[in-house]
Write a structure and sequence with these properties.
The complex is a heterodimer.
Chain A: E1 2-7, E2 10-15, H1 22-29, E3 48-51, E4 54-57, E5 70-72, H2 86-93, H3 103-116, H4 122-128, H5 140-150
Parallel strand pairs in A: 1-5
Antiparallel strand pairs in A: 1-2, 3-4, 3-5
Helix pairs in contact in A: 2-5
Chain B: H1 2-7, H2 22-27, E1 42-48, E2 54-60, H3 62-65, E3 70-75, E4 109-110, E5 116-122, H4 125-132, E6 136-141, H5 148-152, E7 166-172, H6 176-184, E8 188-199, E9 208-214, E10 219-224, H7 229-240, E11 247-250, H8 266-278, E12 282-285, H9 288-294, E13 298-309, E14 315-327, H10 339-342, E15 353-362, H11 376-394, H12 398-405, E16 414-415, E17 421-422, H13 427-438, H14 440-453, E18 457-467, H15 475-480, E19 489-495, E20 501-505, H16 514-526, E21 533-536, H17 554-581, E22 588-591, E23 594-597, E24 600-606, H18 607-616, E25 628-634, E26 643-653, E27 659-669, H19 676-695, E28 727-730, H20 748-765, H21 779-792, H22 799-806
Parallel strand pairs in B: 1-12, 10-11, 14-15, 20-21, 27-28
Antiparallel strand pairs in B: 1-5, 2-4, 2-6, 3-5, 7-15, 8-13, 9-10, 9-12, 13-14, 16-17, 18-26, 19-20, 19-25, 22-23, 23-24, 26-27
Helix pairs in contact in B: 11-20, 13-14, 16-17, 17-18, 19-20
The chains are: A alpha+beta, B alpha+beta.
Chain lengths: 157, 812
């Protein structure tokens, strides 16, 4: 089937198998390998992207379901001049990543979360990110990073 | 060049420098194995045994070969000629150790659920998976050795024809009569049995491998999500019969390891053999179910520990007996994992008599191997739980009984009863800082209030004082333990013509931030900015020698090699500077990238300029070779011994059994720190993994040997919502064993945290009569323990507690 998906502001039309998952489409058709795959049960959140501004686990969305929708992946977070998004900056400043495999999904989940909770408490951050697993950081610094990114209201675009 | 040298004079070691690795990882630019685009690559799928133990009586590949996109399909017998040797076990701990031959695919006998029996190669992952599903394997199911103690008594054979399931018995019993005398004369003894449940390492990046052959050149490049590119190269060569010098192993970005990628795996060998046979690139990416079944698991021990003590609680002897679950086969260091704990069952305590023995036992389950801490978490758990029991038995405070038994700060270097030399330590100092940060006396007061009022939510405080041995490892010591390789690390430091620096390391990071830390070490040495130091690693074509990253070794061993190499650069540059300045080398002072003439500081030569002079080689001293480059290989003189005290605070719901970790204090001493930001992160992550063993995680098997926890939906890796923020503290006791004074911090959090949490749970319920608790501490286990204790000691319990417990209702 044919799908037209706008990814990071760029619309493209492709023929895909109906069983193609959004994450496969992003990685294999669009060549955007920043979105990682960590499981096959929608448990880990490594593949989180934004669909029309809301976080979705792209292993649980068919490419067909993204037809005529707008997707933002980790590659679309930095500004055109290469300046990292405030959430990305906060992750670096607070050492919110180690191996970095969960990080793209974690950043996207955080972006969606902060959109809905611009001034969250620590407990809200922890609840809000419970769909994204990290094995390296113990979450301590991820939580600190998200709280820091929440400080300037313009952190979420 | 001189400008950077001057700027670089500011020391960066010890600062919380942000990681240079982060921008690529944060932007999606980093490339993991699965991200690599390899034209023409074929995809492998593995057909795995659904039985824990079965004869393979037939493999019919006809239907699979007829599926669209399938290029080839092979049984274990088809590929038997590909192997020059069985898969390697590098640690035959005893001369008579049993080790059944382990090949990448089983031929006649499958020995665990997940054991590979056939492979399919196709043009897409989906085509390979579809075809693997129609491979028709005929099995004849065999009795399986599942339960560890039953396996140890040979109730069922894990391998057909093996005389016993026992792989080995290893003992450390330096003075049996002293141990016997201590127990005979003890005023108090403690005898405890603990089960170390199996754990799934669950690195977020599943394993992956991509093998790219050059059929006409004869060379092969192996991209693997591995911690050990160097060891892997050697082992692949020996096992697949490929000349080692033709193999290049590259570990690109690797998404966590925790020991699970410290191995030589069947899939790596299969991709290599298939790429060689098909003359095309072959790749494989692990699915999460395969990560649970076919990647090594951690822990898996039954521990019996006994303490003999005086009436005032001084421990006179420790006796530990371990049964260790090897799983179905011996992987790279499987049998050695218990030995890494064998020397530490007396923990941080000055114990005069000691005895340890371990029996390694085969079962029809996934092989075990090193998982974060590897042997030391198990040892620390046993002694720290047992010491709490001793304190309860004597009615003493658990902090005080620890203090009474500590190896004193004035006893270092400390010759341990188990034969080690502990390098340095101040255990009481770390305990004091931890108790202060936790407000220990305040916690005890609050606990007393809750006990008096009999409130449903009881408070527990758990201590864990640990010492571990890391910095693996002095090669001579490894030889005495029958490990087949050494424990050194290699490094090269070279100055480029423009004054920039390349560091080549044999360490192979997968989240530890080595690029940042190594650049800091070299920046301070050479007086350049850290940004001017590039760190090259994880590619055997770039770093030909290395022993890779595990066992908290990379800073104390690999970092030492780097500073030694940098010193060699400086020493060569000194000769060139002396030549230029027309003075004797010993008349030069060196600091921050600048040689100056003693007593005449304005006469100076900058290292950057010297690098250029060495490069153009127009005017070098007689006999000096061009360029500034130094290499070093460091073989440590001793292990390093990090230590500390962790305090866990839990709230236990006595009605539902739910445990909430409400506070966590960790005071660690890893010697001198290069980057405390990274140290903090290592501690945080380590705590989370150790807490997870205490409270949630278990690789659970049914009686038939089926793994029940095969996905992240039923294997409970904790999420952010289940953990608190952590309070960290640190003491600094440098190691005298290496010039950095560094010890290691990669595993300390995991080693310390598990017993702290379980001790806290027991502490919360001790006044109700609860004295034991198995892991993971599920609500059901807590609920049953509270009910069981209530049944046994009704008289001792208050009316309020009785009525609360009775509200949980029902029979046990």
């Amino acid at each position: 089937m044919q799908v037209t998906v706008t990814v990071n502001g760029v619309p493209e039309t492709h023929d895909v198998e109906t069983r193609t998952l959004l994450v496969q489409y992003l990685r294999e058709v669009r060549g955007l390998t920043g979105t990682n795959i960590g499981c096959d049960t929608t448990s880990c959140g490594a593949c989180t992207v934004l669909m029309d501004g809301e976080s979705v686990k792209s292993c649980t969305v068919l490419a067909a379901q993204a037809d005529a929708h707008e997707i933002i992946t980790i590659e679309g977070m930095a500004a055109a001049d290469g300046t990292m998004h405030p959430i990305q900056q906060a992750f670096q400043e607070h050492h919110g990543l180690q191996c970095g495999y969960c990080t793209p999904g974690m950043v996207m989940a955080a972006a969606s979360f902060l959109q809905e909770h611009p001034q969250p408490s620590e407990a809200e951050v922890r609840e809000g990110l419970e769909g994204n697993l990290c094995r390296c950081t113990g979450y301590h610094n991820i939580v600190q990073a998200v709280l820091a990114a929440a400080s300037p209201p313009e952190a979420v675009r | 060049m001189s400008a950077t040298a001057t700027e670089g004079a500011t020391r960066v070691v010890g600062t919380r420098m942000l990681r240079r690795e982060d921008p690529a990882l944060l932007s999606g630019e980093a490339r993991f194995v699965h991200d690599l685009v390899v034209p023409g690559a074929l995809h492998m799928a593995v057909v795995r045994s659904p039985f824990a133990h079965a004869r393979v009586t037939g493999v019919d590949l006809g239907a699979a070969r007829a599926m669209p996109g399938v290029v080839a399909a092979f049984s274990g017998a088809d590929l038997a000629g590909e192997w020059a040797a069985p898969m390697p076990c590098a640690w035959p701990v005893t001369a008579d150790m049993q080790s059944p031959a382990h090949y990448p695919l089983a031929v006649d006998e499958a020995c665990y659920v997940g054991d590979g029996v056939a492979v399919v190669v196709a043009t897409s992952p989906a085509a390979a998976a579809d075809a693997a599903a129609v491979v028709d394997v005929a099995y004849e199911e065999l009795p399986a050795a599942v339960d560890l103690e039953a396996a140890a008594s040979d109730a069922a054979a894990a391998h057909l024809g093996a005389p016993t399931n026992r792989a080995y018995t290893w003992e450390l019993d330096p003075d049996p009569s002293a141990v016997a005398a201590a127990f005979a004369g003890a005023a108090v003894t403690v005898s405890e049995r603990y089960v170390q449940q199996r754990l799934v390492p669950a690195a977020m990046e599943p394993r992956g491998v991509c093998v790219v052959p050059q059929p006409f050149g004869g060379e092969v490049t192996v991209y693997s999500a591995t911690q050990i590119p160097h060891i892997l190269r050697t082992m692949l060569g020996m096992t697949a019969g490929v000349p080692e010098e033709r193999i290049r192993v590259v570990a690109p970005s690797v998404g966590g390891g925790f020991g699970s990628k410290l191995d030589v795996y069947a899939e790596e060998l299969l991709c290599l053999a298939l790429a060689r046979r098909l003359r095309r690139p072959v790749r494989w990416t692990e699915e999460r179910t395969e990560a649970a079944q076919a990647t090594i698991q951690g822990r898996g021990q039954i521990q019996e520990i006994e303490l003999a003590a005086t009436a005032d609680g001084r421990i006179q002897a420790v006796r530990a007996r371990i049964v260790a679950d090897m799983g179905a086969y011996l992987q790279l260091v499987t049998p050695g994992v218990p030995l890494l704990g064998a020397f530490l069952y007396h923990g941080v305590y000055d114990v005069p008599a000691y005895s340890f023995s371990c029996v390694g036992v085969f079962t029809n389950k996934t092989p075990t191997d090193a998982y974060r801490g590897a042997g030391r978490p198990e040892a620390t758990y046993a002694i720290e739980r047992a010491v709490d029991t001793l304190a309860r038995t004597l009615g003493q405070d658990p902090a005080e009984i620890r203090r009474r038994n500590f190896i004193g700060a004035d006893q270092f270097p400390y010759a341990s009863v188990a034969g080690l030399t502990f390098d340095s330590g101040n255990y009481e100092g770390a305990l004091d800082v931890a108790l202060g940060l936790a407000d220990y006396s305040g916690l005890r007061e609050e606990q007393g209030r809750r006990r008096r009022t009999g409130t449903r939510m009881q408070l527990g405080v758990g201590l864990s004082c640990y010492v571990e041995m890391c910095g693996l490892a002095p090669s001579r010591v490894l030889a005495s333990l029958n490990y087949v390789a050494g424990g050194w690390e290699a490094a090269t430091v070279r100055m480029l013509p423009t004054g920039k620096v390349q560091v080549v390391t044999g360490s192979s990071p997968h989240g530890q931030g080595h690029e940042t830390s190594w650049s800091m070490l070299v920046a301070d040495k050479l007086g350049v900015a850290p940004d001017d130091v590039d760190v090259l690693h994880s590619d055997t074509a770039i770093s030909p020698f290395g022993l890779d990253t595990y066992g908290s070794r990379s800073l104390s061993v690999g970092g030492t090699a780097i500073v030694m190499a940098a010193d060699r650069v400086i020493e060569k540059a000194r000769l060139l500077a002396a030549h230029q300045l027309e003075v004797a080398p010993e008349d030069l002072e060196y600091e921050g990238g600048r040689f100056s003439v003693r007593g005449s500081a304005s006469r100076a030569a900058e290292l950057g300029a010297l690098a250029f002079a060495a490069f153009v080689a127009h005017d070098l001293p007689e006999g000096m070779e061009p360029n500034l480059e130094g290499s070093a290989t460091y073989d440590p003189v001793n292990f390093t011994f990090p230590f500390g005290t962790h305090v866990a605070v839990v709230e236990v719901d006595t009605e539902t059994g739910r445990v909430e970790l409400s506070r966590y204090v960790a005071v660690d001493d890893c010697g001198n720190q290069v980057n405390p930001l990274i140290v903090d992160g290592q501690v945080h992550g380590g705590i989370a993994q150790g807490v997870a063993q205490a409270l949630w995680e278990e690789a659970a098997y049914d009686e038939a040997g089926n793994l029940l926890t095969t996905s992240l939906a039923d294997y409970l890796v904790p999420a952010a919502s289940e953990l608190p923020s952590f309070t960290l503290g640190r003491t600094v006791t440098p190691s005298p064993s290496n010039p950095l004074g560094a010890k290691g911090i990669g595993e300390a959090g995991t080693i310390a945290s598990t017993p702290a949490v379980v001790n806290a749970v027991v502490d919360a319920l001790a006044h109700l009569g609860v004295t034991s608790m198995e892991m993971p501490v599920t609500p059901e286990r807590v609920w049953r323990a509270v009910r069981g204790a209530a049944g046994q000691s009704q008289v001792e319990q208050s009316q309020i507690e009785q009525s609360q417990i009775s509200t949980t209702g029902g029979g046990a």
